[in-house]
Write a structure and sequence with these properties.
Layout (H helix, E strand, L loop, with lengths): L1 H18 L5 H16 L7 H20 L3 H8 L9 H18 L9 H19 L7 H21 L3 E2 L11 E5 L3 E8 L2 E8 L7 H15 L10 E7 L6 E7 L6 H7 L5 H19 L15 E3 L5 E3 L5 H7 L13 H5 L7 H17 L9 H10 L12 H10 L14 H21 L1
Parallel strand pairs: 1-5
Antiparallel strand pairs: 2-3, 3-4, 4-6, 5-6, 7-8
Length: 449
């Protein structure tokens, strides 16, 4: 499913760039229609070969664009014989993918064109499109080059996103940085990285005396971060060290989530429907599930509603654990767990071992926030929360509109006794699997109704 997420991201950005091309419009539109039709299909995970071929077909576009990245080569291409087709090789590969999808997904019954004739039909369309595009005046050559350059930049950005790396300052200078948030220790900007929107966290109060130490931590951690690659985990592009002036500036560059944190969404959208809240809960669970399923089980250790970010389309991304050593080597900020999210056992003894049971409790508080929209133990100080949760074993109540199944999940996660919280033999994998399965059942019911 991670591969499907990559393909969808790659396809969506190619659709956007091809839509903005001012010339060779017929061929660009045709490519857009074909990629879009493949993206819209509901793909079962078992057709791995088809997904591999689809990804390779999109990557082939990069090779073709790089071949024509100079004025002389593109002009030579445009002046070639009329049967020259801009995306001929890419379209051939897409046709192969289309045929596999039709056989495996049985979508042929919804189409008026048979699987056998699809390649021939596309070839006819391509020939007509190329003939009409070639009727454009030669003065449009520079504009065509610009459109191809934009697609090339997008593909280059996607290639860069495959790996976490140190980013040069000039690679973030595509547009002015826009300040979105500010705290005592950092400033958060919206910027661009190869035409893609990104979040740029600039550390204010730094303790790093040497850029070498930061780079050492970064290089050690990036290999570990690759195993968290998932649409449900915030994507990390890398760090940028600006070595100008008397002291360096350190920046962390990540995927940009327009709606901010999960807590921001709950504060700003008080009238969220229950089914929307349930979908947010499932999205949050998918992120934590992926973290726990990263080879050797990995715990977040500081979970709260601020640990999840939300995109414009309400996708939820887990954050707050990535490049932890690198950030600690840079910033003076100390990330201490918030009292409202601590399990009774951790409230009683802060040195109590942090395990999957403690993390599940914290996630239960996050689920309670999503279901109610409220801030946990709002108005209470740490001592009062300790007395309520550990001393009196109290849980904050859920609203009457919460579905019974969601309430069962939340109450199970927040159970006072660790043994009652979801898990099988205390294993990380079993705990989040059980929670995600129940939340999936909740969201399936709300979609059907």
């Amino acid at each position: 499913m991670d591969q499907l997420g990559k393909i969808f991201s790659l396809g969506q950005q190619i659709l956007k760039q091809s839509n903005e091309m001012k010339y060779c419009q017929r061929q660009s539109r045709r490519l857009r229609e074909r990629v879009s039709s493949l993206l819209e299909a509901t793909l079962p995970p078992q057709i791995t070969a088809a997904l591999d071929n689809f990804e390779n077909a999109l990557k082939k576009a990069k090779e073709m664009i790089e071949k024509f990245n100079t004025d002389c080569k593109i002009k030579k291409f445009l002046m070639a014989s009329n049967n020259k087709i801009l995306f001929e090789e890419v379209n051939g590969k897409l046709a192969d993918v289309w045929e596999v999808f039709m056989m495996n997904l049985q979508i042929a019954q919804h189409l008026s064109i048979s699987r056998i004739s699809k390649r021939e039909f596309w070839a006819q369309e391509d020939k007509l499109d190329a003939e009409q595009d070639r009727q454009l005046p030669n003065k449009n050559t520079e504009a065509i080059l610009k459109g191809i350059e934009e697609i090339k930049d997008t593909l280059k950005a996607l290639t860069a996103q495959e790996k976490i790396q140190e980013i040069k300052e000039e690679e973030l200078s595509g547009s002015p940085w826009k300040l979105r948030k500010q705290s005592e220790f950092s400033e958060l900007y919206e910027g661009e990285y190869y035409r893609s929107p990104v979040a740029i966290k600039v550390f204010i109060k730094t303790q790093a005396k040497s850029t070498g130490i930061v780079r050492t931590h970064f290089r050690r951690e990036i290999s570990n971060m690759r195993k968290f690659d998932s649409p449900s985990i915030l994507r990390i592009f890398g760090i940028c060290i600006i070595e100008k002036g008397s002291s360096p500036r350190f920046c962390l560059v990540t995927e940009y989530c327009e709606r901010g944190s999960l807590r921001d969404v709950l504060d700003e959208e008080k009238n969220l429907r229950l089914d929307s809240r349930e979908l947010l809960a499932r999205g949050a669970a998918q992120g934590l599930y992926r973290l726990h399923h990263s080879g050797v089980p990995h715990l977040h250790r500081n979970l709260s509603s601020s640990s999840f970010l939300v995109t414009r389309s309400y996708e939820v991304k887990l954050t707050g654990f990535e490049l932890r050593e690198t950030q600690t080597s840079i910033s003076q900020e100390i990330m201490e767990p918030k009292t409202a999210y601590l399990s009774p056992q951790r409230l009683e003894n802060p040195f109590n071992k942090y395990d999957i049971k403690a993390e599940i409790y914290s996630f239960g508080i996050v689920l309670w926030e999503i279901a109610t929209g409220k801030i946990p133990f709002e108005g209470y100080n740490s001592k009062e929360i300790y007395q309520l949760v550990f001393g009196k074993r109290q849980q904050e109540p859920l609203g009457g509109d919460c579905s019974p199944l969601l309430q069962e999940v939340i109450d199970g996660c927040r159970a006072y006794e660790p043994s009652v919280r979801p898990s099988v033999d205390g294993k990380v994998l079993s705990s989040m699997r059980e929670i995600l399965q129940k939340l999936s059942s909740v969201t399936e019911k709300c979609v059907k109704t």
